[in-house]
Design brief:
single chain, 356 residues, alpha+beta, five-stranded mixed sheet, four-stranded antiparallel sheet, 9 helices, 36% helix, disordered N terminus, disordered C terminus, binds adenosine-5'-diphosphate, binds ligand DP6, binds cobalt (II) ion
Length: 356
């Protein structure tokens, strides 16, 4: 009998960028399926900036599924990893049963070894779980020959990961089905839509946050009445306004909504009991600097947003980057404990460092 005895593993390597929410997701209505209490909207960064790189290998000689994150082995039995592995294998099996599988995709009986590296701080409020799980799901899909809509699987790894499956401006529609089948990400506008828009990341701390997003939002759902009000009465209107501001490339409207939504998200963290403090004194100084700068200019030229961590993400347009960077460097010279470094992260074009 002929048998394929090759020990050669089947290997794929993929990268995925982070996405930064301008209308924040905070709170789940279903913890297992990761279904949110409100829709959210984000901007996906350029592939070659803050990103995860994941290699997945399968081989008949592997005894069990395993995962390494930034060089350290992690627990593969984590329910979220298991959800992603199970769902990709289920889709792969379905495709094969339908007689539709890729010729060179890996055998379904083979175990996987996953090796994932982030090129930026992990769990510091720079959306590592988003890039990480988006990359994991995409790489697994490639190795097992699965195609099509994958944001519903990435969502089950980390909610924000579903939005990193698409480039440009992306919404995560909360959906209302109990099985979560309609809780998916959808591109609102492509990468090419707003070429003058620029993103700067001001790193105030590279440390792991004291309270992870998952447990932080759990406590907020249980204790914050501001969060309930936000999800039911504020976010639905903001989703419409934000989509419109992006469609029209109306920077003033985009910037003001972005800042207000970040502020309200951090207000819900304070309204959580016990309260959660993600912003530090550098973050607060950056917030007041942005408002002072905009006032000085007589128009809104710059916006900030902060995820669950102290690091600022700044939106501005190409023409204002040099001046604003200059202002930041003046107030946070590299020798002081201000922002540790500034990285220019254009959504779509050449990097800031090349321009300066
Ligand atoms: P962040 O603000 O960085 O998204 P979170 O608290 O949401 O922080 O999530 C951090 C967790 O996400 C990590 O502890 C880890 O479990 C998971 N994670 C981060 N990067 C990856 C990755 N590349 N692959 C798989 N899981 C990852
Ligand atoms: C503040 O997606 O990291 O960044 O679904 O529990 O993995 P889990 O949480 P996560 O939460 C992100 C929260 C946020 C806002 C956002 O990205 O929308
Ligand atoms: Co996260």
């Amino acid at each position: 009998m002929l048998e394929d005895r090759t020990e050669q593993p089947h290997i794929v390597t993929c990268t995925a960028p982070v996405n930064i929410a301008v209308i924040k997701y905070w709170g789940k209505r279903n913890e297992d399926l990761i279904l949110p209490i409100n829709s959210s909207l984000s901007v996906t960064l350029h592939q070659d900036q803050l990103k995860t790189t994941t290699t997945v290998a399968t081989s008949r000689s592997f005894q069990e599924d395993r995962i390494w994150l930034n060089g350290k082995e992690e627990d593969i039995t984590h329910p979220r990893l298991q959800s992603c592995l199970r769902e990709i294998r289920r889709l792969a099996r379905k495709r094969r049963n339908d007689g539709d599988s890729g010729v060179d995709s890996a055998s379904l009986s083979h175990k996987v070894h996953i090796c994932s590296v982030n090129n930026f701080p992990t769990a510091a409020g720079l959306a590592s779980s988003a890039a990480g799980f988006a990359c994991l799901v995409y790489s697994l899909a490639r190795v097992f020959g699965v195609e099509g809509e994958l944001s519903g699987i990435a969502r089950q790894g980390s909610g924000s990961a579903c939005r990193s499956m698409y480039g440009g401006f992306v919404q995560w529609i909360m959906g209302n089905k109990e099985d979560g089948k309609d809780s998916l990400a959808q591109q609102v506008e492509p990468e090419t839509h707003w070429p003058e828009l620029r993103i700067l990341v001001l790193v105030a701390s590279t440390e792991r946050k004291p309270v992870g997003s998952t447990s932080g939002m759990q406590t907020s759902v249980k204790t914050s009445c501001l969060l309930k009000h936000r999800a039911e009465s504020v976010v639905p209107g903001r989703m419409v306004e934000m989509t419109e501001a992006i469609r029209k490339k109306d920077f003033t409207a985009f910037a003001e909504l972005t800042m207000k939504d970040s502020n309200q998200f951090h207000a819900t963290c304070l309204d959580t009991y016990p309260p959660i403090f993600y912003l530090n004194h550098v973050s607060q100084q950056i917030i007041s600097l942005v408002h002072r700068y905009n006032k000085h200019c007589g128009e809104t030229r710059v916006a900030y947003t902060f995820d669950a961590g102290p690091n600022a993400v700044i939106f501005t347009s190409q023409q204002h980057v040099p001046e604003f960077v200059h202002v930041v460097q003046h107030f946070f010279p590299p020798e002081t404990n201000g922002a540790d470094f500034i990285k220019g992260l254009p959504v779509n074009c050449a990097s800031l460092s090349e321009e300066l």
